[in-house]
Design a protein that fits this description.
alpha/beta, 577 residues, 8 strands, disordered N terminus, six-stranded mixed beta sheet, disordered C terminus, 59% helix
C-alpha cells in the first residue's frame, strides 16, 4: 500500500466552559510578560519593536490551536531573536522587516514539512549539551550586544570580540541618563524577584520595571534631555498588522539561515514542551508539535512578525498560572491584539535603555551555571560538545554555530550509535527470569510480578536513544495497575547527561502520580554520571542498585524493595518522603 502523507493535528473536543476563567487568568499573566519581552527581543533582532508584539499575537493564537501541548506559548525568544538578527544584518534589500517576514514564512513551511513527514523524533538527536552551549553563548552575546544601548552610544556589532572592541572607545561618551535608566531597570527587576520570593507570590518584574521607566520618562520629560525611546527606532503603527504575503525575492540567499532558525526553533519548542509535560504528565505528539510550531511561524510571516519558537518563560508562566487547555494560549494572543489597539501610542515612549536593562537580566538568566557545571562533569564528550558550541557562537556566524552544534551531535551519534534493545522481563512457572517482546502476549506459564513491570535495556545510553527509552517507559505506565517500573541496565553502557536527565524527569513524574521508578544493574560509571549531573537526586538512594556478582542478584533485591514499597501504602511511600 503506497505511503500517503497526512497532517498530524490535535483533537479538539471536550472543552468545558468551566475552564475558561482559569485559562483567561493564565492568558492575562502571559500577555503582561509578553509586552516587555516582545519589545526587547525585537531589539535583539534589530527589528522595529512593534514586530516583537506582532510575533506574540497571531502566532500564539495559531500555534496553540494546532499543537499538542496544552501549555506551550509560541512567540519571540531570546536565542532565536539573536539568530534572526544575524539574518537581518545581511541587509538584503535594505528592509530588515521584509527579511524577517520572509524568514518566518520559510521557517514555517519547513517545520510544516517536517510535521507532514512525521520527523518529530529528529530532535532527539540534537544533544542537550549542544543546545545548552548555544543558549549559553547566545546569553553572553545578548548581554554584550546591549552595551551600546546601556551607555547611549553607537558602534560596530558582530562577533563577541568585534562588539567589545568597538564599544570600549565609546565609553567616554557614555550618557549618564541612559546608564541610569538601564541600571534602574535591572535593580527594579531584581527587587521584584526578591519580593516575590519573600511573599510567596510571583510579581511580573519586567512589566513593573517597564511601567516605571515609562512613568519616569513622561514625568521628567527625559526624551527632551536626549533619552532614546521606542518611537526613535520605529513608532508602533496604529491598529493591527495587515495580512500580507512577504516578498520572496531573497529566498535563495536566506536558505542557510532559515534552516538554522528551523532547527533552533524546533529544538527550543520541543525542549519546552517536554519539560512541561514531565511536570504535568501530559502526553505529547512530536510531529503535531512540529505542525503547530510551523503554522505559528507561517502566521508570523503573514501578520507582521518574525520567526518564533516555544517561549520557556511564558509557557512556564502559563502552566503555573493554572491554564487548563490550549485556549489559554489563544487568549494570550487575542489579549496582545487588544494591547496593540489600545496602548500603541503609550508603548512608543518606552526607553530603549530600559529594554537594554531587561535584556541584561535575560542574558544573566540564560547562563545556567549549575547546569553547565553538571554537564562539564558528566562526561568528556558532553563537555567537548558544550565547549565547542559556546566558542562557535562567539567566533562564528550564528547559523554556522548552529550547524557546528548539529554536526557535533551527528559525530557523537555515529561514534556511539547502535540500536537500543529493550525487553520486558517476566518469570516462568519455576521462578526463572524470561525475556519477552514488549506488547506481546505472555507464553503460557509465564507471569509478571503484581503491580511491577521490569524493562531490560541493552545498548548505549546516549542522547540519541533518550526519547526511545522514555517512550518505552510510557508504554509500561499506561497500565493503571502498574505501581513500580524497574529498569535493568546491566547490559547497557555509556550513559550521558541527556539520558540521566530524562530518567530523572521520568522518576519525578512517577512520584507525582504516586508511583516509583527504580534502576538496577548500574555500573559505577553510570552511577557516577547520575550523581555528577544531579539526576540521582530525583531517586530514593535505595532505588538505584549497582550490578552484583551473581546474575539477577541485584534484580531480586530491587524486586523485594518494590514489593515492600507497594505493601507499605500502594504509592504513598515515595509521595510522602
Amino acid at each position: 500500500m503506497p505511503w500517503r502523507p497526512s497532517l498530524p493535528l490535535p483533537p479538539w473536543s471536550g472543552y468545558s466552559v468551566r475552564d475558561l476563567p482559569a485559562d483567561l487568568s493564565a492568558a492575562a499573566a502571559v500577555s503582561v510578560l509578553a509586552i516587555p519581552q516582545g519589545l526587547a527581543y525585537a531589539t535583539i533582532a534589530g527589528l522595529p519593536p512593534a514586530m516583537g508584539l506582532y510575533a506574540s499575537a497571531m502566532p500564539a493564537i495559531v500555534g496553540s490551536l494546532f499543537r499538542s501541548s496544552r501549555h506551550v506559548i509560541a512567540g519571540p525568544t531570546n536565542a532565536l531573536s539573536l539568530l534572526v538578527g544575524a539574518a537581518v544584518a545581511t541587509g538584503l534589500g535594505g528592509d530588515p522587516a521584509g527579511v524577517a517576514l520572509t524568514l518566518a514564512l520559510m521557517v514555517g513551511v519547513m517545520q510544516l514539512m517536517a510535521g507532514l513527514l512525521r520527523l518529530g523524533l529528529v530532535v532527539d538527536y540534537i544533544s542537550g549539551p549542544v543546545v545548552l552551549g548555544y543558549i549559553t553563548g547566545a546569553g553572553v552575546l545578548i548581554g554584550v550586544g546591549q552595551l551600546y544601548n546601556i551607555t547611549g552610544t553607537t558602534g560596530p556589532q558582530g562577533t563577541l570580540v568585534t562588539t567589545i572592541r568597538g564599544w570600549i572607545p565609546t565609553v567616554d561618551e557614555t550618557s549618564a541618563l541612559a546608564a541610569g535608566v538601564a541600571l534602574g531597570t535591572v535593580a527594579v527587576v531584581v527587587a521584584m524577584r526578591r519580593l516575590s520570593t519573600r511573599i510567596g507570590r510571583r510579581i511580573p518584574g519586567a512589566i513593573v520595571a517597564m511601567i516605571a521607566a515609562l512613568v519616569v520618562d513622561v514625568v521628567f520629560d527625559l526624551e527632551a534631555q536626549g533619552l532614546r525611546v521606542v518611537s526613535d527606532l520605529s513608532p508602533i503603527p496604529d491598529g493591527l498588522p495587515a495580512l500580507a504575503l512577504p516578498d520572496l525575492t531573497h529566498v535563495a540567499a536566506l536558505w542557510p539561515l532559515a534552516v538554522a532558525c528551523t532547527v533552533l526553533s524546533l529544538v527550543e519548542s520541543s525542549a519546552v514542551a517536554r519539560s512541561l509535560a514531565a511536570r504535568t504528565g501530559q502526553r505529547l505528539d512530536p510531529s503535531t508539535e512540529f505542525v503547530g510550531q510551523g503554522l505559528a511561524n507561517v502566521a508570523a510571516g503573514l501578520w507582521g512578525g518574525y520567526p518564533v519558537s516555544g517561549s520557556l518563560s511564558r509557557s512556564a508562566l502559563n502552566e503555573r498560572g493554572g491554564a487548563r487547555s490550549r485556549v489559554a494560549g489563544m487568549l494570550s494572543g487575542i489579549l496582545m491584539l487588544g494591547v496593540l489597539l489600545v496602548f500603541d501610542s503609550v508603548l512608543d515612549h518606552t526607553p530603549i535603555a530600559s529594554l537594554a536593562g531587561l535584556l541584561v537580566v535575560v542574558a544573566w538568566d540564560l547562563v545556567d551555571g549549575p547546569r553547565i557545571l553538571r554537564t562539564l562533569r558528566a562526561s568528556r564528550a558532553d563537555a567537548l560538545a558544550f565547549g565547542a558550541t559556546v566558542l562557535g557562537t562567539w567566533t562564528l556566524s550564528l547559523d554556522t554555530a548552529i550547524y557546528l552544534g548539529v554536526g557535533l551531535s551527528v559525530v557523537l551519534f555515529l561514534r556511539r550509535a547502535r540500536t537500543l534493545v529493550m525487553w520486558e522481563m517476566t518469570q516462568d512457572a519455576d521462578g526463572n527470569w524470561q525475556e519477552c517482546a514488549m506488547g506481546e502476549a505472555l507464553v503460557p506459564g509465564d507471569r509478571r510480578l503484581p503491580g511491577i513491570r521490569i524493562l531490560q535495556v541493552e545498548g548505549p545510553l546516549f542522547f540519541g536513544v533518550a526519547g526511545e527509552l522514555i517512550r518505552a517507559l510510557d508504554t509500561l505506565w499506561r497500565d493503571p495497575e502498574v505501581r513500580v517500573v524497574i529498569v535493568r541496565l546491566r547490559r547497557a553502557h555509556g550513559m550521558d547527561a541527556t539520558v540521566a536527565d530524562r530518567l530523572a524527569e521520568a522518576a519525578v513524574r512517577a512520584e507525582q502520580q504516586g508511583r516509583a521508578l527504580m534502576l538496577t544493574g548500574l555500573d559505577h560509571r553510570a552511577l557516577g554520571v547520575l550523581e555528577r549531573s544531579g539526576a540521582a537526586q530525583a531517586f530514593v538512594p535505595e532505588h538505584m542498585l549497582c550490578a552484583r556478582g551473581r546474575r539477577f542478584e541485584a534484580l531480586g533485591m530491587v524486586c523485594e524493595q518494590a514489593r515492600a514499597w507497594i505493601a507499605r501504602g500502594e504509592g504513598s511511600g515515595i509521595a510522602d518522603r
